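ok trying again, last paste got cut off:
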Amino acid sequence: MPGDDRDAPPHDQNVVVVTGLSGGGKTAATKLFEDLGYTCVDNLPGEMLPQFAALISSDPERFARVAVVLDVRTGDVQLALSAMRVALEGRGIRPQVFFLEARDEVLIRRFSETRHRHPLGDQRGIASSIAAERRILEPVRAAADVVVDTSDLSLRELRERIFSGLASQPEPDQLALQLISFGFKFGVPLEADLVFDVRFMQNPYYVPELRQHSGLTDQVRAFVLEQSPARTFLDFIAEFLEFAIPAYVAECKTRLTIAIGCTGGYHRSIVIAEELATWLRDRSFGPVAVFHRELERT
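nice, full thing came through this time. structure:
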């Protein structure tokens, strides 16, 4: 119908859904969105989400930026998220879903430090509640646009991940691509879809004049890329992604997180992640974000 707000343009409205595990960092993320000028709504009953979507659409100036928190307190999170998406997309607004999580031991420590009760808490204990919540939220995680493991992130790093996620909205025939360099001795990133191990390459750590320099420096980059195994590996991964990315797109996947790991995450993995990011950007598969998880550890 003429004048129906469903037919109105989206006016560059940006709606994000913040979801994930209890203790995963949703409160901190919400505060960061507030700092960015978002209207934030937390713990809205699932039955009210379609009406809230209509309200957002009806006033694009007032609700230019909105963040909605959905978690197990909502009830059926998957159903609530689906209803929210349908209501918004029917009005020309595609919400972006951020899923925050952390390792079990980190979540247990956070609950112990804050003495908060887990929403699914019962006599089984906190570990069982976390496991149950992971099972419940797995379909939501799979449908998310951005998945962030907050286990080892500072507030500044979380802000960086949110910024990069907001800038990674793909076109319908693209993937939002995220590269994470990491150190195996600190654990594999939970959000990784693909993990590649580059510890077979010679390690700049054992070259005294390179040890203190990261993989972002020219001298470390040259040391790594001059190795024959490094060039062979990059050719291999390029061939694999040439095949895999279109297949992921055909399966309607909207994001792909690739983790590149070495021992400490400071030299080889950074070099390879940066080289791969350059190649991906040249191929225009979709927006590319890079995060070096261990860069500030040394």
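cool. Confidence is low (pLDDT under 50) at residues 1-11. The first helix runs from residue 26 to 35.
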